[in-house]
Specification:
- It is a single chain.
- By secondary structure, the protein is mostly beta strands.
- It has a domain of 84 residues: Immunoglobulin-like, CATH 2.60.40.
- The strands form two sheets. A five-stranded mixed beta sheet has the order 2-8-7-4-5, with no helix packed on it.
Length: 141
């Protein structure tokens, strides 16, 4: 079994996948927090090939630390775990706050998602009039 992501915040979605279960069978998936409290028990049905997928939004009040996930179908059982961490704004602590990703508000204009601030790149308007035929100074040619 595997869980994604490996580190999850309160209120974030956790997805658990597994293989090797009986085909088309009912599986009980139990989530137990670091204090030993069962925070959720869900039922899911495996695929025709014995694969399972279960999703859980980690509930408020879940103890921080290891969250153990166990899936059981008859005599078949598997376990995995994730780390539950505190969040301030719904994002896992230590997440990217610099905005440097392709879609995350690049402020220098040099990445693929930003406007070209120096007007020399292919994604911005050329205001110098030197390469795009917009020369406004007739004696420069």
């Amino acid at each position: 079994m595997a869980a994604d992501p490996a580190v999850v915040g309160l209120g974030d979605e956790l997805t658990v996948t597994g293989t090797g279960f009986p085909p088309s069978s009912e599986v009980t998936v139990t989530y137990v927090d670091a204090n030993g409290v069962t925070v959720a028990t869900q039922l899911t049905i495996t695929s025709e090939t014995g694969e399972l997928t279960d999703a859980l939004v980690v509930p408020a009040g879940t103890a921080l630390g290891e969250l153990v996930v166990t899936a059981t179908a008859g005599a078949t059982s598997a376990t995995t775990s994730v780390e539950v961490v505190d969040t301030d704004d719904g994002d896992v602590e230590g997440g990217d706050t610099g905005g440097g990703g392709d879609d995350a508000g690049d402020t220098d204009g040099g990445a693929a998602d930003g406007a070209d601030a120096d007007s020399g790149g292919v994604d911005g308007a050329d205001v110098t009039g030197d390469a795009d035929g917009g020369d406004t100074d007739p004696d420069r040619g």
